[in-house]
Amino acid sequence: MLNNFVWKNKTHFIRKSVLMNPLKQGGLDFLDFTTLNNTFKINWLKNFLNNPSSLWNIIPNYIFSKVGGLNFLLLCNYNITKIPVKLSNFHKQMLLAWSLIYKHNFSPHRYYLWNNKDILYKNKSLFFDNWFKNNLLLVGQLFNSQGRLYNYSDFLQKYKIPITTSEYAIVFNAIPSGVSFLLQGSTFPWPCTHSLNLADTMIGNVCFSVEQHKNNSKIRALFQRELMTIPYIIPYWNNIVENLPWEKVWSLSHKYLLTNKVKEITFKLIHKCYPTKAFLKKYKSDIEVNCSFCHSAEEDFIHLFWQCTHTEKFWSDVLLFIQSYFISDFSFCFKDVFFGLFDYSKENIGKYYIINLCFLLAKFHIHKQKFTGSKPLFSLFRDDLDRYIETIQCSINPKAMKTVSLYSSFLSS
Ligand SMILES: [Zn+2]
After folding, report:
1. What is the DSSP string of 338-393?
2. pLDDT at position 212, please?
3. What distance in angstroms lies between residue 268's CA and the mean position of ligand 1's atoms?
4. How far apart are the C-alpha atoms of 127 and 244, rounded to whole Å?
5. 319: CA distance to ligand 1 center in Å?
6. How far is C-alpha 3 from the chain's CA centre?
7. pLDDT tens digits, residue range 365-380?
C-alpha cells in the first residue's frame, strides 16, 4: 500500500529496494513494512534482555531456559525449525528477525555446540543443561590437542563432569565430518573465557545497548542493507558523466525549502523515469511521441529539457539573468542543469546556492509548462521565482531564511 501510494496507484518506475535507500544515496528513505516489523521484534528482544526479571518475561524466560536462555540462544547458529522446544509464532518471528542481521561467519571460537543447526540428533539441534552449566559450549572443546575428537574416558578426565555414555554418544556422533575438518589445529583454552554478552557483538551493541534510546532507524538500517540495492542509474550515468559527487547530487534539492513537486522533477530525471512521451511509449505503445513544445522532434528528456528550440531559448534567457545578477562570465551545460553545480570557489558559495535553486525551479517550470500545454517562458519563470521567494519569506525554516536573504542581497545589488 505504501509503495502504491508513492506511485499514486500507477506504474512503479523505480524498484522498492532502490527507494529504500537514504535520501543522500538516491532513495526516498522509503519505509518497508517487513523491515519495520523486524525492527519491532528486535525492540521486543531489547526489552526482554534489559529487564530479565520483569513480570512480562516470566514465560519466555521459562521457555528459553530449556535451551540455555535467550541471551545464549541469540549467539547460537540456530535454525528455528530445529530447536527442540515448541515455540510460538511470535517467538519464531523474533528469532528469525535476529538471524537476518546477526551473521555467523564461521569462527572456531564462536562456533557453539548447542542449538547449532549443523549439529543434529534426530533432526533437532542439541542442548544438554549439565554440559552447558559446566561451560562446555564450543564444538572445539570436544577436540584434543592433536585435533581429534576425545574418546569417552579422556573426555571425562579432561573436564571432570559426570556425563553418561549415551549423552557422549549423541553429541560426538552428531559432529559432521566437515566441522571436524575445519576445527583441526585450532586450540581452545580451558576454561574458556570469552564473553557471552550480546552487547559485546557489533550487532548486539547497535540493537540492545541501554544508552541508545531512539535507535529504530539504526536497527532498521541493519535490515535494510540486506535488501537495498544501489540505484542502478548510478553506473549508467558514471559511464556518461565523469566524477559526479553522488551524495551532493542526491542531497541538493533537500538543501532548500521546496515542495516535493519541485524535488520530484529532478529526482525522476536523474532516475530516468521522468514521464516524457518517449518514456511512456515503453509502457503504452499507441502514444504519439512528438515534443509537447515544438511538435517536430521526439520528446525524450534531453530534448524536452534542453535541446528543444523553446527550452533552448528559455535557458539562454536564464543564462542572461544569471550573468546580470550573479556571475558576469557564467556559462553552464546540460550536466550542470541536470545534476547541479558543485565545483566553485568558496567566495561564490552563496551565488551558487541560488543558481542551483534557479536550475531546480527552472526544470520545474519546464515541466509545468508541458503539462499546462504552454511553452517555457523566462518572464513567467521570473514571476514564479519571485513568488516563490515571497512565499517562503515569512518562514522561520533556516533553509528558507538562508534562501531569502541571499536572493534579496544579490538581486538588490
Ligand atoms: Zn521540442
Report:
1. HH------GGGHHHHHHHHHHHHHHHHHHHHHHHTT----HHHHHHHHHHHHHHHT
2. 64
3. 19
4. 55
5. 20
6. 16
7. 999 999 999 999 999 9
Q: Residue 300 class from Cβ within 10 Å (0-12 exposed, 13-18 middle, 19+ buried)?
A: middle
Report the C-alpha gap between 400 and 396 in whole angstroms: 7
Tell me the mean pLDDT in the region 316-335: 94
Q: Are 364 and 262 in contact (CB under 8 A)?
A: yes
Span from the CA of 307 to the centroid of ligand 1 (angstroms): 7
In this predicted structure, what is the pLDDT of residue 190?
63
CA neighbours closer than 13 Å in the CB half-sphere of residue 324: 8
Least confident of 126-135, 180-189, 256-265: 180-189
Q: Which three cell numbers stand for residue 33?
A: 513494512
For 95, the enclosing helix (H) or strand (E) is helix 89-101
- Residue 295 CA to ligand 1 center (angstroms) comes to 6
The continuous run of DSSP H or E covering 334 comes out as helix 334-339
Q: How far is the CA of 227 from the centre of ligand 1 (A)?
A: 40
Per-residue pLDDT tens digits for 161-195: 889 999 999 999 999 988 888 887 777 766 666 67
Q: pTM above 0.70? A: yes
Three-state DSSP at 410 gives helix
Rounded distance from Cα 269 to ligand 1 centre (Å): 17
- Residue with the bigger pLDDT between 148 and 365: it is 365
